[in-house]
């Protein structure tokens, strides 16, 4: 997969012109901003779920697809974000948006010592290590029977004083800002020098280090950034759900969703997780009982795609029509790369 | 508190973790692959045994004679049919594929057997124990498991060191390209390694299933125990993995004795402590096998 990506470096893929890209962006943003005026609370709630899944998938893709850090423990930061929001809003009386930021900050602060240990592990053992970190946090929360009410979990009370409409509008507005913000963040990051360093690390860490990339520092930066982002999204998820338990919040199912969305949509692209999230969301709406069968189906599709089409749906589209919406590839060629992605 | 009893129980529990860990480190040693479905396959073996007992009425220990070859075949099939197809594409594809398989197995077991926990009916064996030196009694099943773990290590070492096939394993582990030039079919070696790994964990899965209950979602915890046994003991050392498994069992047992909520937590913390203080593990060797 990695070798293929180098060999297939696009020689001149079509892109949207600046005007069309801006128009498409304005259309999406306009639709999302105006939605509360023409869509009911049901549609808004659906969009909140969609945007949280999209943000989670983009963050996992940044971590694994662009940096090569295959974490299967991202549920750690969802749980921490959710609990941090409830503690900030209910115990400390802070405003909800600040609670979301604190969710991210707490996750990043806990991710720092975790990274110190995890980065000693290579490849697959790193993955299992991230899972151990998530399990430790789940067990610590479960053992906190007084403060966090252990396995029973807690309910967000701070929004109880708000009118239902206000709460729904606030949740929706935050979801739009976070969903679009994460896509923009990944896009801008991948077009920066750091983005170039990240793909270099993914393709060969040794070669990247030899060329002077500070691999450890950049990997740590991305790991903390993704923990922060996932923590914020975790807080948003529980602002929407209101009730949190350690088993649900620290469930590996969250990471399974992220992985399946990214693999099916197209790993290592920004468009891929968007397509994957849309497909995942449609599947979830149509399968009335979203349970074991859907996860088996998603798992099977993801496994088959990893074997026969590891580039995912967007990868196939991109190759067939030589087209991309969020250009972050770099081309080898005199002068052209500056205009393209510098 | 009965400290001796607690530690003995921990050691016996650790024997199971050691066997899980040996299975995990065997395939990592040969092909640098971490099978994220490792724990779910352990649970799968226990369910396979359960079905056989219910269908044929065989005693649990005799189901080993069927489950071991079945799991071996499943391992060969998994490696040759699926994982060998993504060889040489970096560590990510096999990780994500085995993660997908893990989710499929968990949810498949949930559909087939519900979330209720099960136990293999071992009859008198379940509680059979032998007194040791008058101060503790030791269950027959965990003793059997411990004997199998030790035999497995000795067997693997003899196999790797003394047989032609074992030499092929080591050669493939060191450098698959050169090994292939010498006429070794590395894909076949990988298939056999995965088969052997699953055969080993089938034994542990069934023996533990006779002692404690198991459920469809127990797989991830068992993968983590296998991983922790390897991390504590040190990568690439089979005796180290045995020691790591035993220490993990003792940590869990002592943790649970102090506070029932600390059973798993104590084991995780020991693993992280080892990783922090001695990242190569307590009994590390430089060689991978």
Tags for this entry?
heterodimer; A: mainly alpha; ABC transporter involved in vitamin B12 uptake, BtuC; two-stranded antiparallel ribbon; 4 strands; 2% strand; B: 289 residues; mainly alpha; globular
Output the number of helix runs of chain B: 11
- Note the run of SSEs of chain A as H and E: HEHHHHHEHHHHEHHHHHEH
Query: What is the mean pLDDT of chain B?
Result: 90
Strand content of chain A: under 5%
Low-confidence stretches of chain B: none
Order of helices and strands of chain B: HHHHEEHHHHHHH
Overall mean pLDDT of chain A: 88
CATH level 1 class label of chain A:
Mainly Alpha
Largest protein interface, residues of each chain: A-B, 43 and 47 residues
Name the quaternary structure: heterodimer
Helix content of chain B: over 70%
Which CATH first-tier class of chain B would you pick?
A: Mainly Alpha
How many strand segments of chain B? 2
What do you see in this structure?
The complex is a heterodimer of chains A (342) and B (289). Chain A has 342 residues and is an all-alpha fold. Chain A is built from 16 helices and 4 strands. Chain A is globular, with a radius of gyration of 20 Å. The two termini of chain A are 24 Å apart. The N terminus and C terminus of chain A are likely disordered. With 289 residues, chain B is mostly helical. Chain B has 11 helices and 2 strands; from the N terminus they run ααααββααααααα. In chain B, strands 1-2 form a two-stranded antiparallel sheet. In chain B, a hairpin with a 3-residue loop joins strand 1 and strand 2. Chain B is globular, with a radius of gyration of 19 Å. The mean pLDDT of chain B is 90. Chains A and B meet through helix 6, helix 12 and helix 14 of A and helix 4, helix 9 and helix 11 of B.
